[in-house]
Amino acid sequence: MSSFGPMSAASEEQVGGAPVGHPAEPGVLDLSHNVILYLDGITVSFDGFKALNKLSMAIDAGELRCIIGPNGAGKTTMMDVITGKTRPDRGRAFFGQTIDLLRLSEPEIAHAGIGRKFQKPTVFENLTVFENLELAMKTDKSARVSLFAWLDDTGRDKVSDTLKQIRLDHEAERQAGLLSHGQKQWLEIGMLLMQDPQLLLLDEPVAGMTDDETARTGELFKSLAGKHSLVVVEHDMAFIEQLGGKVTVLHEGSVLAEGDLATVQNDERVIEVYLGR
Amino acid sequence: MTRTPFIIRFLTAMPKSGWVALAVFAALTLGLLPALHLLVPADSALHVSAYVITLVGKIMCYAVVAVAMDLIWGYAGILSLGHGLFFALGGYAFGMYLMRQIGRDGSYQSDLPDFMVFLDWKQLPWYWGLSDSFAWTVALVLIVPALVAFIFGFFAFRSRIKGVYFSIITQALTFAAMLLFFRNETGFGGNNGFTDFKRILGYGITTPGMRVMLFALSALLLMVTLIAGRYLVTSKLGRVLAAVRDAESRVMFLGYSPLHYKLFIWTLSAMLCGVAGALYVPQVGIINPGEMSPANSIEIAIWVAVGGRATLIGPVIGAAIVNLSKSFFTQAFPEYWLFFLGALFVGVTLWLPNGVVGLWRKLRGRPA
């Protein structure tokens, strides 16, 4: 990773001789302004269609943020931009104060501390639940190290802790492809936790779960907030209410409204484009 | 933190039955068969003929290619339809050495290989320079296929070319190489390729001793390939590759770079094919651009499919079944061989999706 990229980009924000309170360390997440994610004027267009239109947003460290919006509002595209899958035409995206996400590849962004759960549960179907979590564990992920890597006791303990957390401790040796839809969702959340990310992006995490499973997922997320920052894209209003964080409404690729759920639900523009239907 | 010693990890990579089977195989190929060929007189019923030794030696080389193919297709989900190229490159690299070893014993009694005399060339092209040395030849056998695979793989995997597109490009690659090697000007004997070999390291190539030596080396290579393959697929690297096969984007968002993993297994697979090709050429006594024909590479995929993908031992069985039937059919009913091969492939695809090994596991009531 180039050490100049993130640093020089950061110093642009400090023009005018403002004193720099601490040295910027390349690759290390800087939360000195208590903000973990900045999106600034992000525009993405596909063949003229603007999936994101000058989207700006900031997520605080430790926050639990819900994102709602009608289909095609740009929720998944936003996650694609943050995780490096899609490059925007314009705009800036920073992780903390110093890490420029637009300069990093998908694996580098994952290493920096952003974990992503897909809309459709994506687990390794032919590996066991245990192996799925083992691969997700935060460690040196180069091919050379993997060739000789061997799971030690610390790693084994970490996997069993996570298995308990996601209530799959009795399914550890089961093939992931044989799990129920809800269990796959949990396994994927568990894989995120194994990565130990600072920021978790969760795309419709409770789709296909029973009410009971949904409620338990809500509890898990609430317990994670504070230590981690979470961005949850959801359609399930009851679930969003349970989470109780700030809500951002996206519409046609930009932010329509932001605030707690009650405020947003009473916003006339929101009612018009989304909730009123 | 406890560290498991490497040797333990290595030994546990294969189940006990696997090690036993390997020991039996070693006893047969390194002890019994060579002894029956060399020590038992030719008129005895127990004598193993030169034909059998060469046929089995050849099939063991094919089996190595099949295992190499299984590593990338079965375990990493990358179907190459151009693996014959790497086999042929290894074969050509060793063939160049064999040509130089002919010395002045060729038809034209020249210092140059016969085909160069025939083309009225006055001196050896520069790229033949290393082929007088046995050590350099061994290095070339490893380096040339690896380099071609690495460069091709780097660009293909970096551009995230996958699935059927990748297969088609590999097919085109081997076809292009075949056309190149067909040209006389390329300097590898044109459509006749290399043949009429005389000796290796001064020993006659048709002597029983040399025949058994090449046979034993092929057996050793196959065993080393199986053990190394077993270690690879049970290592974390193997699990990452299986994960890439199932959900590549998820692997990337976990922080792995699939490019490095794919490139490693792809290049290793090509090197194994190269070594197999180098052992194959002196046993059959000829190498020509036909080895690079797309049909040959497709046949490699058929061996793996027949034996059973992602099983390592399956491809060995598949290569043996197909090639033994080929030897039988091409003698008994030469015109029907391709029909049989096609029917075999269709039949396996329809009724044995997990190949012979899958059938065996099903019969024994184990999950395939």
How would you portray this structure in words?
- The complex is a heterodimer of chains A (277) and B (368).
- Chain A is α/β, with parallel strands linked by helices and 277 residues long.
- Chain A has a single domain, classed as Rossmann fold (3-Layer(aba) Sandwich).
- Helices cover 36% and strands 23% of the residues of chain A.
- Chain A has helices at residues 4-12, 75-82, 106-112, 129-136, 143-148, 153-165, 181-194, 211-224, 237-243, 261-266, 268-275, and strands at 35-46, 49-60, 64-68, 90-95, 99-100, 114-117, 199-203, 229-233, 246-251, 254-259.
- Chain A has a 6-stranded mixed sheet with strand order 6-7-8-3-9-10, with helices on both faces.
- In chain A, a hairpin with a 2-residue loop joins strand 1 and strand 2.
- The model of chain A is unreliable at 1-19 (pLDDT under 50).
- With 368 residues, chain B is mostly helical.
- Chain B has one domain (20-363).
- Helices cover 68% and strands 2% of the residues of chain B.
- Chain B contains 15 helices and 4 strands.
- Chain B has helices spanning 6-12, 16-38, 50-73, 83-101, 114-118, 134-158, 163-182, 208-234, 236-246, 248-253, 258-284, 294-307, 313-332, 337-351, 355-363; strands spanning 194-195, 199-200, 203-204, 286-287.
- In chain B, the strands form 2 sheets. Chain B has a two-stranded antiparallel sheet with strand order 1-4. Chain B has a two-stranded antiparallel sheet with strand order 2-3.
- The longest helix of chain B has 27 residues, at 208-234.
- Chain B starts with 5 loop residues before the first helix and ends in a 5-residue tail after the last helix.
- The model of chain B has no long low-confidence stretch (mean pLDDT 91).
- The chains are: A alpha/beta (277), B mainly alpha (368).
